[in-house]
## 1
Amino acid sequence: MSMRWVFKPEPDAGAAGSLAGELGIDPLLAGLLVQRGVATFDEARFFFRPELAHLHDPMEMRDMDRAVTRVEEALQSGERILVYGDYDVDGTTAVSLMAAYLRETSDAVATYIPDRYLEGYGLSFQGIDFADDNGIGLIIALDCGVKAIEQARYAREKGIDLIICDHHRPGEQLPEAVAVLDPKRADCRYPYKELCGCGVGFKLIQALHGRKNLPLEDLLPYLDLVATAIGADIVPITGENRVLVHYGLDVINHRPRPGIQALLRGVERESYQVSDLVFRVAPRINAAGRMQHGEDAVRLLTEKDPEVARALADEIESLNSWRRETEQSITEEALSMIREGGEESRMSTVVYKEDWHKGVIGIVASRLIETYYRPTLVFTRSGDKLAASARSVRGFDLYEALEACADSIDQFGGHTYAAGLTLEASRFGEFKEQFEKVVAGRIREESLTPEIQVDLPIHLSQVHPKLVRILNQFGPFGPGNPSPLFAAGPLTDTGFARTVGEAGAHLKLAVTQDGTGPFGAIGFGLGDRLPLISGGRPFQAVFSIEENHWQGRMSIQLKIRDIREMPAEG
């Protein structure tokens, strides 16, 4: 698939030069900082040295005082509490976090994850019935609930109080609850709006802990869960999230909980990074809710015995293998349907088959975008209705598009780039055409081609070990703070380029520029570009710069994201 190279605006030369002098760093690095909104010494200190003191006061969040008071009442009276959360990574880590914290004080804390297939997403009537049947007087709903108007009313009728900790966009009306903690509430002045659901849950325990005048450092052991949720939920790693991930990774690298340690078995690293959480830990936690039940993930993440945790992790690993096989099969079937249905030139992808596994349709949607880069929905049957997972492309607001199709939809929720919805089976054809029209009328042409955002051009003579060491300190990387990408050319291969991996999928080479180098390089998924660089042909590349550790030695490696021919001169 062709890629658009989009260069970020050049940093202000004066600001970059001044910052380079203050910090004593390469002007190239100072330029990268200025691009990221870091222009002063104090801002750089905050960026490079996150501190717990940088976390905001949780009492700034609307309704936090009411939430704290109600939880304290429940703990003091021994009232039964139900910690309720969604079945994905954000939800299960949030439930694990809250339950583990409350159980330090109370034995009357139960957990509840809805069944993906029998109950669906969010706060369910079945979950409220469970609370009622078990004499539970307080439900703390995490990563869900901000749109649960009817469910909140039902809980109230049952005499059950509800505290909602969510981060999704609220509707026009808020649920009737003791407290609705959501930084995206229009009337909430909390200064950081990009917390995940687990992050909002953490702010509640931070407030509870602070009410006891206990040190914030006591809560560090919980931050491995928060960091995992931030990485998995693709929220920006900026501001408060950056602080939480920084300390969460420290926990994972030095004193991880047994469950996360068990999931990382077999992954040998100098230190674990956000990418290990996103590509190793998160898919396995998700596999529990996708293929069996999210409670399996909560049991793993709250288990204190390492041997028991390893056994639970082995069970989840089996579920993850099943998930991968199922996902691949459905993806191949969906691609065939698109081709055979003559739908390759549409502006959107909407596919449906009633027996597709509901637990993997979100992953399948992402896989389809790798082939047909456009807003994508994958439907399957769920009870007497159809359910879909939706994924979008850069620059297209999926949530607003679904709002425009609301008359065809029963229920929907989500974010700009990912959402879920249900509708009546009889309305599928109507919705499919309506969604296509909305996308065709709103999407910009450039949004139909994937883009790479390039930070700065670079010459290989500027690449040296000190540069790489400081680049590493730009992490943790993720949305809002991606690993810096550079563009360089003309580059040439030393003549030993080859394809590696299954079916020659990847490209391994060593590059030079004007006599500088060679630097080892790897291009994952770029095996088909070998002809572009063979025979000493000059080329351009976009890449990140990283350390490659092998047999106790460190070398600089370029991780290539895309390759182009050099443009013809003249």
## 2
Amino acid sequence: MVKQYNFSSKHRENSFFSSPTLLLALGSLGIVYGDIGTSPLYALRECFYGIYAVDLREGNILGVLSLVFWSLTMVISIKYVVFIMRADYKRMGGIFALLALISDDRRKISPKLYSYVVFIAMIGAALLFGDGVITPAISVLSAVEGLGIATESAKPLIVPLTCLILVFLFFVQHRGAEVIGNIFGPIMVVWFITIAMLGLKEIMVRPDILRSINPIYAYDFFAANRIQGFMVLGAVVLCITGGEALYADMGHFGKNPIRISWFGLVFPSLLLNYFGQGALLLNNPNFVINPFYGLVPKSLMYPMVCLSTIATIIASQAMISGIFSLTQQAIQLGFFPKMQIIHTSRNIEGQVYIPQINYIMMVISISLVLLFKRSGGLAGAYGIAVTADMALTSILYFFVINRIWKIPFWQALSLLFLFLSFDISYFSANLPKIFDGGWVTLAIAAIIVTAMIFFRDDREAIKTKILKPKLVLDAFLEDIAKNNPPRIQGTAVFMSTSAVGLPKSLLNHLKYNSFLHENIVILFNRLVDTPNVSDWEKVEIEELGHNFYRIFASYGFKEKPDIPLIMYLASFKGLSTDPATTIYYMSKGSIAGIPGRLIYDFT
């Protein structure tokens, strides 16, 4: 049986430190890490100057930095980079990849439990969609706000300039992740090195800030601040937003390049900058309004604002690319209707662009900027969706490693408890944000998951109807043998949207015309996960009896359907037809690629 989904990537996982791997690692900097890489712009500020900020004293600074350090270490480095990224479906990542791994071997899970797993995956994906439209808005807005620090006269320009940058960002998406990554990657190298050096400069003034690596400071922070300290955890989570995007973008570059870039540059640069901001606040509490820009010398303020703005444009790319991948997977799993999917790379199937999704995200992101007007307001809407999605990812990962990979139950459960101890804490701390803007992402997620449920149920109803006994191929062929309808010279090719059963156009043709052609070909076009398919492998023929044939035509994701070529290639595998007496019939939704004068629509 031909599966209804196929979202793999055929690029090889090259060995560590090979030239292709290092080039992909560079490109991943411009796509994968933009979101988490620009979190220093606003994460620490929200802890001490946000809605639920704590007092700016040494114990709190050390405690918050301890939380930042262990959040980045346990959630991103351990959970995602080391463990979750092992769970790829044909090198593709994201919550739907976990579902596909489970779906591939459904016998290992009960039907009732599987239905719950599907629902969890749908909710998780919908939450990521909701979070995806906020990422571009908060990232770009937080960088442009640096102009307001440089000069008061620039404040009225912040919102219009942010909207203009967002329009540009979404406008260039059709170039594809490979081109964008090659352009953005070197810029992000400059960004990470710059923020690392700025942080290191301040750490050298106050090296005692490194004491915060000790988790005892995190414990003391909660003991001293109690409920308010727990609420600050909702701001600390801003430093790890981007973890889900990292996993969802895995298909664009592969595991090894992402791991190299994370441990080799991104992780140490982030830590140096966060520790540097903490050291700055120890010496100069007045910089609490924006500690990131407090690290920047006045003479470099304008260049840094420009670099930050470019970096946040790139930051938005992580979620945008992730949403494209997620949408493609949702379509192939039957949760979304068909949309135009443009493959932007000749080598990597995971690099896709979906125009409809791109424009929808642009409109919503700009609307959020106009609604909230400042990044602090958007921070209230940011976090609750992604923390819920992180928890759901942990649950699905448990089913994968326990039911599919057969990891012993107690080991899998121990890992689940470890992950959920962080995920649930972050989610609980973000719950109050529902009233401060978090309702936006939840509302978007609710709309998306409702649409997915209705579309899936409608699709299943249609599928059930199509597969009724009277439409099953064997029953139809038995009826042909029994009634022997008149045959005329030539070949009729009926396009099919399914690898099994009968196309509706064939049934309608026989019903209205009461005759069949000498040869009947049912042609099913399928996409495979390579850029191109050789002519010999492009055609598979199945003889059904009574001069009925089914052809499976395979196309690479960079190829366009060419039906006359398929019929010509079929002649080399035993099915000879005369082009002059061949007529093509299409059903609604079947793939084109046929000479227009020969098409008959019997929908």
## 3
Amino acid sequence: MNRIEARKKAEALVAKMTVEEAASQLRYDAPGIERLGVPAYNWWNEALHGVARAGVATSFPQAIGLAATFDGDLVKRLGDVASTEGRAKYNESARQDDRNIYKGLTFWSPNINIFRDPRWGRGQETYGEDPFLTATMGKNYVRGLQGDGETMKAAACAKHFAVHSGPEGLRHSFDVRPSKKDMYETYLPAFKELVDEGVEAIMGAYNRVNGEPCCGSKELNVDILRGDWGFEGHYVSDCGAIADFHQYHKVTETPEESAALALKNGCDVNCGGTYQYILRALDMGLIDEQDIRQAAVRAFTCRYMLGIMEGSEFDSVPYSAVECREHLATAHEASLKSCVMLKNDGILPLDTNKIKTLAVVGPNANSRFSLIGNYWGTSSRYITVLEGLQDALGDDVRVLFSEGSHLFKDRIELGPNDDRVSEAVTVAQHADAVLLVVGLDETLEGEEGDAYNASYSGDKPDLYLPRTQRNLVKKVLEVGKPTIVVMLAGSSMDLEDANEKASAILQGWYPGARGGKAIAELLLGKKSPSGKLPLTFYYNKQLETMPAFEDYGMKGRTYRYFTDKPLYPFGFGLTYGDCFVSCAKAEQGEEKTKVICKVKNAGKMDTEDVVQIYCQNEGSENAPVNPRLCGFKRVFVKSGGEAEVEIEIENKRFLVVNEEGRSVQEGKVVLYAGMGQPDAYTKELTGHESVRMEL
């Protein structure tokens, strides 16, 4: 059902409601209206990386890992997996008249905020630091979630609008005052592209922007979102955000005033309890009845488009689709493609003819929590890194295990501090090689209120591992055995001495409930790593020269504006092959430019890799300091072979944003094609230089 038809039906239905009934439908937990045949509906559901909080579902890598795949088609297929399983669950729940939280078809995903500061705990939920990569991945996830059927398969929601990326502890009261350039160059583009894609919902952020709370902002929601961009879907508040208006932002004095401010500025559905005061706001003359009915129409337009009111072709999706073989295979593909190999002195892939005893050490080696990140669903089976290796190696290689340390506590049992380090050293001494599996989980980086590191509200204080793990890494490296580090974390980490002393480093992110199987396959060479960093990895000491966490200015942040040499650059990732762009040419049309690249693999193993196109406007005062990503595509190249890749780039990617926030054409446009950024450090790490093209 298209939006025009759905809206007409919604208008007719809402016209039959009393104002009290219409107001009740603006709560996230909307009650049923029996006399009109309207079932109860709970708007709150999650599908950040698979259906979450709703029982068993296929578990994908966390969103930051999906970004590392640089594979839009895969992300679209994962969105389809999530919406299929969401439909299967909804169908059964509806049959049982269970319409409670996490049972609906409105998924509050994806999170397309920009991961601008490496300390932000919720950065793991995003697609990284680059607006173009974020928009591309976000659009594909929306396409997969919403589908292209007669009715919408599920409703996606782009969040958190807008200019939102920490600190978590200040989010309920913080006022962001970004420059026009940063707004339109960094913080708004992904939202604009998802609106153009047809995303059904927008969720407002907690913070203020230019003095206005996001969920009640005339500038953001009326002027930009519905005015300039023509957004026609529904708008939902973040949970409790409207209560923040009077409790923390102090822009209103009462719940009635807060409800009125949000409703007047386009917030249709309230996650929280403040819209319980709407009728009192109406009685006080703060809003009109039409304000209530307009929001109700938008909400029911979505419900009609989903087929909730009159039925859908997706009502036949069976429960057997949940965690089916095909879905698990797609999630496994994502786990394989998400891992990023940051270093390899040749020890990988592991040679089981030479390594007969492998020590697996670390608090994340056998941890289920380190597989799933936050906003997770339940898996019927979990495969940790330890279990993945044990299953893959069988009796061919002896696997010794030591937890070595707690994730962050000083001791595991009742002994002294670092009570398991001696065991870790012992197993390292008795092995031919060591696999150190360290990192974080959602208890140390995540959302305020969900993460357990209360001192930092889910954010990281620095880029180091917790003290206990740092000591463990130091002691194991001192043994002197060949050591591979697997990092399970959702953000930039500084491994200190391990950056130099480890033989290899694999960034596994939070790879999904069965991600240990994929990591084992990569370590053993059954597949080649092929992921790329969707964010810059910094040295911890570089935080001292970066802007303050609370500063939303982009100068000195992310690969586009960072001028120092990072630990590892955005777009970087090694493979077991040796791929490079041997030649490239650009053919510019009126609206799009086609870049044709030849890619060679001089390595000894077949592999996938990612061709990346970067753009710079030479001579422009408004261009970012460094070339910016404007196109990418995965390619498979056989050992010693060659492949041709065509990448289409919209010419609007070549514009720059000036200080007034307007996109303008400036300077000489230069494109670069390679397997990473066209910078000296990427060349140093890969041994290859990007191909330059002038338009």
## 4
Amino acid sequence: MSETFIFSGALVAVLFAIVAVLLLQRRRRSMVGAEALALAKANNQDIPPSLHPVIDPDLCIGSFSCIKACPEGDIIGVVNGVATLIEAAHCIGHGRCEVDCPVGAIKLVFGTSERGMDLPQTDDVFESSKAGVFVIGELGGMGLIKNALRQGVDVGRTLKKRLQQSDAQGSLVDVVIVGGGPAGIAAAISCKAHGLVARVLEQESVGGCIAHYPRGKVVMTEQVDLPAFGRFGRPLLSKEELLHELRAAMAAAKVRVEEGQKVVRIEGEQPMFAVHTATGAQLHCRAVVLAIGLRGSPRKIGCSGEDRPKVTYRLVDPEQYHGMRVLVVGGGDSAVEAAIQLAEESSAKVSISYRQDSFSRAKQRNRDKIAALIADGRVRPILSSEVVAIEEGLVRLKTEQGEGRLKNDQVIVAIGGELPTEFLKACGVDIKKYRGEEKLAVKRKGAALTKHEVEARTRRRLAIALMTVGGGILLALLLIGEEYYFLPLEERATAPLHEFLKPAGLWGHGVGVAATTFMMANFLYALRKRWGALKGRYSIRTWLTFHQFVGVMSPLVIAFHAAFLATNLLALWTWAALAVVVGTGVFGRFLFGFVPAQAGHLLALSEVRQRLQELERKIEPHLVEATNAELVRELFDSANKAPKHRSFLRAVVEERGSRRKLAKAIQHAARFFPDRAHWEVFRDGLLELSHGRMQLAFYATMKRVFAAWLVLHVVLAIFMVVLIAGHVGVTIYLGYGWIFTDKG
């Protein structure tokens, strides 16, 4: 007995030591994140360029799935125990972090308060405010090539449903796609696969703005399925390889891009549009897809002389600048890459002007390259400067030292693109400026369910299906051994089913193997967050539903394997560890029940306060209508007070009793209301108000408890696996040792 006690005490001590180490690691990680964030702010790396995540620290529970999900590396870190956007300037809007957050603490927004962003208004299928006109790709705010390709495929599927069947004849086609970049090409391939006739108009050449990227630039990091082609792309693709792949996909689908066709206006209404080009051509179609990107409308400096022939807005061929004095204007990746390419691939004398004091917006590898070229004297940096005039043979610059003159032959302006506002407005497409806001889809009557609504419905159906399957499994196990399991222990050995159902019997052993395999499937939830092959496969919340199902079912099925007996210490510890892990999971869900949430998303502290204020306003009119207003008011004031206990644990323990007492008092007050409808509003509102007051009072405490619980739950799960491995090892040794014995 004493040995058992010592062994158990040692195991508990080891568990607490591991928990302490993990908590210290979290603290150290938080300190590293704080230092990285401070450095990013010092280097002006804390303002994102476009689509980026906003993480609510009040909602984050510290699972840090978002950190592992980001393909770009350490864009998100840990500060003060919660996930924080650190390398904001290098976030390119993958959006994986939002999908992998199990509590909805992350939302994707466009623009910031410092840097607003204009975007066309679209719905969930990319249809703009102009019915029949669709906007995809960078023009809609999704700059990643993989997003552009997927949107192109999706819009083709949508158009098939919308147009039903092809009506192309003569000069009439089903769809005109404006833009021959990845989004436009994918849309054309998708339309072709769905039996629609589409024409693709591109003002320059195949690939759109990608054709003007620097040679060798890596432009794609994920694969996408294209109709009639299959898996498109590789983990890393250069600009040249991407263009080759695009042409191969076009050839496989027999899609052609009409180059040199600039669209100048779109007229008409659904279902008939007239698309006019700069060459005077006119195409009639039933739908229009705009995939023109932003770089086709380069942002201007706004200085005198910018309209001179020597000013261009992209670097096409470095060799054409041999021996010239070239000024690159800008400090982002496009400008820095242009300066690097000119210095490395031509004999030009290269200068680069940027209004900031460092190239903070550029990626680290580009900053390292241009720093080396500056050190070698091959690029001249003119920082904290603005171009005020472009003249023949020179450029006038305003610097901290005053206005200066720079001898110059060519100017390359690379300060980004801007929305083709006038063109969109002429097409009838509404535009909105976003300043750190979510892009809420325009909702039309009868529109299909959104992606989030579909996911929520899928999770509900999955939960119901799993509950049904789990109940069926337990019922079947019970029916098979009902006679045996209810026998007294001393009578089991002589029962006919003993050899079959005992833990070492054919059935009992088989159930144990199946249950152990099933139980290990619980770790698929953890693998989903870490293993590349599973990332992106359904939302993390769907995996969490499966995780909870397996966790609850495992100890119940294991009990049938053990025939509801504890035959040895290791088996007992194994089952106990499993039960504790499940218990901590259930307790976590119990804790989570005290977290304010709405529609499956956690609420921030400010939202909780706002929600309580709205409840007060909703209940107030019903207080006046009561015949005994004074008594009802006292009941309201009692429910609207903060908990009298300062201890979170005590408040949680007493919450159920307090809630029952309040419900009873509300029931007695029903006779003071004019009708049942008014009383039900009062009842529901008051119960919610009372619960909300407790949530508000213990919000910070609950967050700390929840974070510690997560660490404990993980450690116990690892400990459980070790015990299971030991139990399986002993079983194999005792049950199958004869295989390894020497018969000789």
